[in-house]
Design goal:
Elements (H helix, E strand, L loop, with lengths): L1 E12 L2 E13 L4 E5 L6 H8 L7 E6 L2 E2 L5 H8 L2 E5 L10 H11 L4 H14 L15 H12 L6 E5 L7 H18 L2 E6 L2 H7 L2 E6 L2 E7 H4 L4
Helix pairs in contact: 3-4, 3-5, 5-6
Bound molecules: adenosine-5'-diphosphate (2 copies).
The site of one adenosine-5'-diphosphate (ADP) has 12 residues, from strand 1, strand 2 and helix 1.
């Protein structure tokens, strides 16, 4: 589903050059949960953000469902992004909007009919187990609940790919477990492909099918989780 080919990325800040990605090649299959693990500064965030082009690459291609993301016009990219949901470490909800309106937001931008939005948001709330928080504001929610709202919002346009940027790093271990379980359920019930980045081995061991280890912008190992992290 995703083919990352010879991708390199250099940040230029003032007179410094920071090489964030060095000739990365990766294949991510449809309907798998793929993890990228590495230390802070290894290039994980840069890598996952190239998949929906929140970050531009300097070299290489990112092919998602046959479409080379790196060669799209701005307009084509906005359209393509409906197919790619994303969630973040700090949830990035709109604090002045209710849970309902946060989830409805991407649908409103897509100019979906009000009746359909109402039904869709209620379905999504049920899917993530938050129907009773419909009219709450983000500040009234726990971290786990906020991430559930963010997941519902990310799924509003029915994407088949979900990108998770350190999605459980701000959560305690129990909440992390419940969010990972939700992601696993979504992968199975909706047939989602999930790409996640994390610095925590537990996250990878708990839900990933395959994993790549990134260090200093290089993929140093990749394969099935059991093969990469042998645990007796
Ligand atoms: P990770 O997600 O694994 O912590 P990042 O992708 O955030 O790694 O960062 C990779 C490298 O690129 C780091 O050395 C980081 O300092 C640098 N970097 C990230 N974003 C920028 C930026 N906007 N400008 C300059 N350097 C950056
Ligand atoms: P989740 O159920 O999504 O995993 P958490 O584990 O973070 O969420 O929270 C467990 C439960 O504790 C929640 O369902 C919620 O009812 C309650 N809770 C925790 N913190 C808060 C808060 N700040 N405001 C309201 N309820 C909270």
């Amino acid at each position: 589903m995703i083919k990352i080919r010879n991708v390199s990325k250099v940040y230029k800040s003032q007179d410094k050059r920071i090489i964030a990605l060095r000739d990365i090649n990766l294949d991510i299959n449809k309907k798998e949960i793929f993890g990228v693990i590495g230390l802070s500064g290894a290039g994980k965030s840069t890598l996952i953000r190239t998949i929906n082009r929140l970050e531009e690459v300097d070299k290489g291609q990112i092919i998602v469902d046959g479409v080379d993301i790196t060669s799209l016009t701005k307009k084509e990219l906005l359209n393509q992004r409906k197919n790619i949901g994303m969630i973040f470490q700090h949830f990035d909800l709109l604090s002045s909007k209710t849970v309902f309106d946060n989830i409805a937001f991407p649908l409103q931008i897509s100019k979906v009919n009000k009746q359909i939005i109402y039904k869709k948001v209620n379905d999504l709330l049920e899917l993530v187990g938050l129907s009773d928080k419909k009219y709450a504001y983000p500040s009234q929610l726990s971290g786990g609940q906020k991430q559930r709202v963010a997941i519902a919002r990310a799924l509003a346009n029915d994407p088949n790919l979900l990108l998770c940027d350190e999605a459980t790093s701000a959560l305690d271990p129990e909440t992390t477990k419940s969010i990972l379980l939700l992601l696993k359920n979504l992968q199975q019930t909706l047939g989602l492909t999930v790409v996640l980045i994390t610095h925590e081995m537990e996250v990878v061991k708990r839900i990933c099918d395959r994993v790549a280890v990134i260090s200093d912008g290089l993929i140093v190992e990749s394969g099935k989780v059991d093969d990469v992290f042998f645990s007796p």
